[in-house]
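Is this the right way to post structure tokens for a design question? Let me know if I should format differently. Anyway, here goes:
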């Protein structure tokens, strides 16, 4: 059931990505057609003006109608305007050369990067809990805000889960690898054995067994996160034992957004306004990292 769910999510993500690429290509094609039509119109107008000049034999005007019609934006690509300055000297019968070459095509847009977002825990796995507040719920809320932030910035997103379902830890990186994600970001809340308001702050974990830039990703995420939210920056931490990092094959990190065991921080972490800010900060770190590539 879990794998079916993941397969479906993976297919949906690829579909959404493909739709985005097709939309971009279609838009480029429409722009190209508009440019060609515009050029043809300019050429036709010029020809008409030339013909009119020959008919009336009035040689002093420099086709005022032409420049009026095509205000401004045609100044650069009207190769025929010099013809207007011939002013009747040799109004020859030689046919005007009609440029037929198409304008240079617009450059093909680069494919969007695919970010795998992993809301920790879910379903039967509640994560750490306090006061009937479940870590899995805060993780998912933050992850969904993060998804929107990244999509608004033009990135494609693959959600390991986007509802309250159980997903085995080993299946998470496997799903991201199968989806061919470019980077992987897992969202969690931190906890201590006992409640303590003294321990607060965010930290980001990475594995160094691949030497693939995960440490840079982690550093960007923690720094950008702590610029947006007012909490202690506990820095980046290395471990090759966290399953979602250990079994990954792409730059990956795990964000501990704050401590559920701190009463003060817990209140913030379950507040949608704060969750949105957390997402913003993480997104800024991801964007900064992806801008390197
Ligand atoms: Zn957790």
């Amino acid at each position: 059931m879990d794998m079916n769910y993941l397969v479906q999510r993976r297919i949906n993500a690829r579909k959404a990505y493909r739709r985005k690429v097709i939309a971009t290509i279609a838009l480029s094609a429409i722009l190209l057609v508009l440019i060609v039509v515009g050029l043809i119109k300019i050429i036709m107008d010029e020809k008409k003006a030339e013909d009119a000049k020959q008919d009336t034999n009035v040689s002093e005007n420099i086709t005022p109608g032409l420049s009026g019609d095509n205000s401004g934006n045609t100044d650069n690509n009207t190769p025929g305007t010099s013809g207007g300055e011939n002013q009747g000297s040799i109004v020859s019968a030689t046919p005007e050369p009609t440029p037929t070459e198409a304008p240079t095509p617009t450059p093909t847009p680069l494919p969007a990067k695919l970010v795998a977002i992993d809301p920790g825990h879910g379903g039967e796995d509640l994560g750490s809990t306090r006061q009937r507040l479940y870590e899995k719920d805060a993780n998912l809320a933050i992850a969904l805000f993060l998804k929107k932030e990244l999509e608004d910035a033009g990135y494609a997103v693959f959600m390991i889960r986007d509802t309250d379902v159980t997903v085995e830890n080993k299946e998470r990186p496997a799903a991201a690898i199968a989806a061919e994600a470019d980077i992987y970001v897992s969202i969690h809340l931190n906890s201590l054995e006992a409640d303590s308001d003294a321990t607060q702050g965010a930290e980001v974990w990475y594995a160094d067994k691949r030497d693939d830039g995960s440490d840079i990703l982690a550093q960007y995420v923690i720094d950008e996160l702590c610029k947006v939210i007012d909490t202690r920056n506990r820095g980046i931490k290395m471990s090759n034992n966290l399953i979602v990092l250990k079994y990954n094959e792409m730059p990956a990190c795990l964000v501990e957004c704050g401590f559920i065991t701190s009463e003060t921080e817990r209140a913030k972490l379950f507040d949608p306004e704060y969750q949105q800010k957390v997402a913003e900060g993480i997104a800024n770190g991801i964007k900064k990292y992806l801008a390197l590539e």
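Format looks fine. Someone answered above. Worth noting: The chain is about 45% helix and 15% strand. The radius of gyration is 29 Å.
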